[in-house]
Amino acid sequence: MRMTLGAEAHTVVGMIALQGLKMTVLGLAIGTVLLVPLMVLISNVLRGFSFEAVSPMTLVPVVLVLFAVSAVASVVPATRAATVDPVSVLRAD
Asked: What is the pTM of this model?
């Protein structure tokens, strides 16, 4: 709809990708906050095993990979949506 009203393609891609990345950052923040007490609880239950409750060497790469996958998952559909001819979409509806 924004393309029909005159928005440029890069503006639409940025807007859609930003919405997806905001949700990603929120989900990663909530997940990280909830992870710490959960891992401490698990390490207390499994005292006989030797492992670190929260390892930054594991957490940081996982968060970065999830962020990268989410960025691609946000930008690819946004780019496809920005390349569609707005007139043909309006005619189809």
From this structure: 0.72
Distance CA 88, CA 25 (A): 35
Dihedral sign for Cα atoms in the order 57, 62, 68, 74: negative
Q: What does each of the 93 residues of the chain score in pLDDT, given as a tens digit?
A: 665 566 677 787 888 889 999 999 999 999 989 988 888 888 788 777 776 667 778 889 999 999 999 999 988 988 887 787 777 767 776
Helices marked H in 46-85: 56-83
Determine the Cα–Cα distance for residues 41 and 90; give it in Å rounded to an integer: 54
Which residues in 14-53 are b (16+ Cβ under 10 Å) and which e? eebbeebbeebeeebeeeeeeeeeebeeeeeeeeeeeeee
CB atoms within 10 A of CB 11: 13
**Cβ atoms of 70 and 24 closer than 8 Å:** yes
